[in-house]
Amino acid sequence: MDRIVPPKYVLRVLFTLQSRGYPAYLVGGCVRDMLLGVRPHDWDVCTGARPEEVMAVFPKTRPTGLQHGTVTVIDGSHALEVTTFRAEGEYSDHRHPDAVRFVTDLTADLSRRDFTINAMALSAEGVLTDPFGGRADLQKGVVRCVGDPEQRFEEDALRMFRALRFSARLGFRIDPATREAIRRKAPLAAALACERVREELEKLLLTRSPETLGELVELGLLDPWLYHRPSPGLEYLRLSALPRVALDRWCGLCWLLERDGAIASAESFLDSLRLDSRSKSCCAGAIEILSSPMPASAAEWKRCLRRHGTEAALCAARCADAFEHRGHTRALKEVLKSGECFSLRHLAVGGEDLLALGLRGKALGEMLDFLLDYVIEYPENNRRELLLNIAAHTEE
Predict the structure, then answer these.
(1) Any residues with CB less than 8 A from the CB of 87 and at least 6 apart, and which?
(2) Which end of the chain has fewer CB atoms surrounding its CB within 10 Å, N or C?
(3) Residue 389 CB: number of other CB atoms within 10 A?
(4) What is the pLDDT of residues 269-285, one digit of tens each?
(5) CATH match for 221-338 among 1.10.155, 1.20.58, 1.10.150, 3.30.700
């Protein structure tokens, strides 16, 4: 495996701090990913320099989080977060520390982190600092809390969701003590901001092992958003058969939960997690399609598209293929590829044409609907002259 080397701008920041007498290290997720042979998307630096000292060392900085010791260093077109070694006080809201204090000891800084695999630091020269056995846990494929897991989750309840997400993303098992602590501390999830829970759930859903969400549910982390905990044996594994697309996987999850009666509806569940209106509408439409016999002909698919729109129909087709049958997505795509009319927008006549025939108000709308139904059944007849002739000679 080729050794992953940090970008030059990152190394420049590390060496510049060191040249001024301040210890500086890569820390957290970027170190974990490098040890796994994965090139990090983000780079984070921790240092013994206080925020004002970091700002004095570099000509261009932004004070992005001074209260937490974070300064963003600008190097050309690159921005790099540099955070002072710190210790944290109590977490009265189970999410954020009430206060932080800056320290000079790297191990003290690493000891406040969530999991051992995220509590390692790497110097610019490639020397690893690993006081809690993170490298060994990487090799064993284990997600384990730093120190007492119950204390870690008392401090920040979102860490329980992160544990499951790392397990799904990396294909790791959760350390038994950490897993049991999640079960005991799961009620703390009720105090979390719904938006943060949604973000963690979506990240987990988009991994290659979205079925891990079943373990999250079984541990009780989703209880505040459910009518009841779903029945054992729910087919979460089917979620992995869906494309790694947020809408599809949210729809698949809602379909599982709604069929089990664990949620009242996709729309209410997604609303409680503060998803956007587009996602809520699409998933609700898709599940309405899934709750009836799936379209079995081109005409039925076109009526489905007319009522629910392309996005919801595609979600429904992909979910039906993943959960029950095969071929729905292909059939729907053939209809879409055909270019045949399924909406008023594609009808060869419009409201102005019918106004010219003397149709008004309700009668005009009913005639448009009639003509669209006709064209859906007989797509080859979507011709302006023919449709105008039908409209002119059809009695109300």
Answers:
(1) 100, 101, 103, 108, 109, 112
(2) N
(3) 11
(4) 999 999 999 999 999 99
(5) 1.20.58
